[in-house]
Design brief:
11 helices; 3 domains; 30% strand; D-amino Acid Aminotransferase, Chain A, domain 1; binds adenosine monophosphate; alpha+beta
Length: 357
């Protein structure tokens, strides 16, 4: 177990790294941020900085030698980067999870292998295999690139009348999967943590609403039955255990409701702290950021108990953040701004949390 005063290396310098560094500081942990982007928001709040490319092996080695453990704020860490770092110091979560979550096909096969439902899916490598996949899964269905998709990027809906060769070309001819359309009634996520000793703690399952493919609000707890919530947490536990995971992870799920009741379909695993866990900063005893720092430092996990009857987190996207003064004047609002120098449409600039008694 690391002690206060130890240094956590964080790969990536966005708002997630910034909030990790701030949470670590509360426990007396130092953060060393590694990012290629000069004006990244985490650089403002850390004890040490390396600005270098993720494939700069000399910079990676020097970084890893200067810290006690390395963690990351994004899942697209190149395999080679993780390999170089691991030769010098522990990397948590265990980089095996990167290979699983960087590729939607491998991720779905892994989740299915645990007996957990996912959307039906098929491997698509060219227009011919797309035609066969659409014949099997029907329309509507969703074509997604296997790698590097986020916030709805790298995907296209295959509706009636859509030309398949054109749809495949829209995604640049990259390897894809076709997913059967899940007629969900809501989207939920489980944010949970697993410690070095195998201990597991989950926050309340929360409900997520997206606008223009970007998370708009998260409400905790989700309005689902207790049995469904238990199942959701059991699924996240099974995933974390099987991957020998250490740290915070998020599992995004669809809730489908039919005559038999509610059932869950896992959509995606994020091997990191997650936007749908931001409510825990103000709305839970231990925030997801502190929890992640505790986990990767080998410290005991903290309580995930929620404050209040309901907690609502709203993202401030682009110009939304210009309303900061009004939010500060609202006694019920907890404002978080990420210190980004440039506001762009669709860019996450901050968030605001409200705790309802
Ligand atoms: P993803 O990039 O996989 O997180 O997908 C982005 C959003 O597209 C999700 O949050 C859903 O709203 C929607 N979506 C993704 N996959 C499916 C699916 N198989 N069926 C229905 N909607 C989906």
């Amino acid at each position: 177990m690391l002690s206060p005063g130890a240094t956590i290396g964080i790969l990536g310098g966005g708002q997630l790294a910034r909030m990790l560094a701030l949470a670590g500081a509360r426990l007396g942990l130092k953060s060393h941020v590694f990012s290629p982007v000069a004006d990244d928001p985490a650089f403002d709040v850390c004890s040490a900085r390396t600005r270098a490319d993720f494939l700069d092996e000399a910079a990676l080695a020097a970084f890893a030698d200067a810290v006690d453990v390395v963690t990351y704020e994004f899942e697209n860490v190149p395999a080679r980067t993780a390999e170089v770092l691991e030769a010098h110091c522990p990397v948590r979560p265990n980089p095996k999870i990167l290979a699983l979550t960087q590729d939607r096909l491998i991720e779905k096969q892994f989740v299915r292998g645990l007996g957990i439902p996912t959307a039906d899916f098929a491997d698509v490598s060219d227009a011919g295999s797309l035609a066969r996949a659409v014949a099997a899964l029907g329309r509507p269905s969703i074509l997604k690139t296997r790698r590097f998709g986020y916030d709805g990027k790298g995907q296209t809906h295959i509706r009636e009348g859509v030309d398949l060769a054109q749809a495949f070309a829209t995604l640049g001819g990259a390897p894809c999967i076709l997913e059967g359309f899940v007629p969900f009634v809501k989207e939920v996520s489980v944010v949970a943590a697993r410690g070095v000793d195998g201990s597991f703690r989950a926050y309340d399952v929360c409900e997520n609403v997206h606008e223009h493919h970007i998370l708009a609000t998260t409400t905790a707890p989700a309005a689902i039955s207790e049995a469904t919530a238990r199942q959701a947490i059991d699924m996240a536990r099974a995933i974390a255990q099987d991957a020998d995971y250490v740290g915070v992870l998020a599992v995004e799920m669809f809730v489908v409701a039919d005559a038999q009741g509610e059932r869950l379909v896992v959509n995606e695993i994020a091997p990191r702290v997650h936007n749908s866990g931001h409510w825990t900063l103000d709305g839970a005893v231990t925030s997801q950021f502190e929890q992640h720092m505790r986990a990767v430092a080998g410290m005991p996990l903290g309580s995930t108990r929620r404050h209040g009857r309901q907690v609502v987190m709203r993202n401030l996207i682009g110009a939304d953040a210009d309303t900061w003064a009004g939010i500060l004047a609202d006694d019920g609002a907890c404002l978080h701004l990420y210190g980004k120098t440039e506001s762009r449409p669709g860019r996450k600039m901050g968030h605001v949390t409200r705790i309802l008694d």
